[in-house]
Amino acid sequence: MTSRSDAPAVKAALKTQAVETPSWAYGNSGTRFKVFAQPGVPRTPQEKLDDAARVHEHTGVAPTVALHIPWDKVDDYGALATYAKERGVRLGTINSNVFQDDDYKLGSVCHPDAAVRRKAVAHLLECVDIMDATGSRDLKLWFSDGTNYPGQDDIRSRQDRLAEALAAVYERLGDDQRMLLEYKFFEPAFYTTDVPDWGTAYAHCLKLGDKAQVVVDTGHHAPGTNIEFIVALLLREGKLGGFDFNSRFYADDDLMVGAADPFQLFRIMYEVIRGGGLASDVAFMLDQCHNIEAKIPAIIRSVMNVQEATAKALLVDGTALAEAQVSGDVLAANAVLMDAYNTDVRPLLAEVREEIGIDPDPIAAYHRSGWAQKITEERVGGTQAGWGA
Ligand code: LRH
Ligand code: MN
Ligand code: MN
């Protein structure tokens, strides 16, 4: 933590932060009621990388792109990694998908039928093969598994099946690879979810070992959940693998991070910094869908929102805060935090951008670049993200 006058240290820390953008955010998406297609959206994984490279070019802090398999299926993942590199970005987290096939109606790794479980585990292992080819460090696991009705399946047996599958994947990981287990309290299952909360994810990861870490998707909690507490606790236990950032007003809305509740994002980032997370292996990923807004500028805006929350959190005067806390001065302690939150950090971030040689206003620079016009003219028949259809 820094003192308020420590602007060079704050700037230096901001320059080290990297935000991973998700391939699926570049494609068309929507709700189950309607997908509104946008002109110029990518038709291939390669074109998603082209767009991600623009986000990195204008923000300077989005060097990696998460893939979702099979949404981003290609024949040669090594070649895709080279394609990314040639455009100045890298392939990041590999997201597994064991929720789309008809076979998964009653679950994937927790399914009562062993044949379906074997199919799901085979997909997860294939994702690790892909990581080997792309050089990715992280495998992100999210399971739609659960039940809709009391009695539908045995809650405890499903946990046993989950543990068995996770252990098989863990075994397959290389020395420098990790698996990030994501929880979500409901949807698509409405009665039980097999990984509903951080505690369940933590319990499984603890048993598995150091290479298994919990990922916090900010949209996956019940209203009123204190997410920063979860962040503080997981960091304290060395079990916070990363974030899927997005905003929610109601359920898993997947809106732009920092749009619904920038104060919550600040509180989360404060705990990240307090726990040493900015300098650790915590992955800062976006997991969003841009259903009605232009996608590339929305992703740029999201990256900037994460940076702004981080900058404010870095500005918290740690010394003053500790003094107020120790002396039991509740109002003074709260004021220290609010003082940082209420600071306009946009000029500071503009300076950071100038110092790394990019335009201080990424959105304006993107609009001036002509990229939107180019892709609208060149790309006809863009693909759906695969999500929310
Ligand atoms: C599930 C989830 C998970 C998926 C992504 C598309 O709601 O957050 O991370 O992989 O959405
Ligand atoms: Mn997610
Ligand atoms: Mn989600």
UniProtKB/TrEMBL annotation:
The keyword Metal-binding applies. GO terms for molecular function: L-rhamnose isomerase activity. The keyword Membrane does not apply. Its EC number is 5.3.1.14. It is an enzyme of class 5 (isomerase). Keywords: Isomerase, Manganese, Metal-binding. This is L-rhamnose isomerase. It comes from Streptomyces flavidovirens.
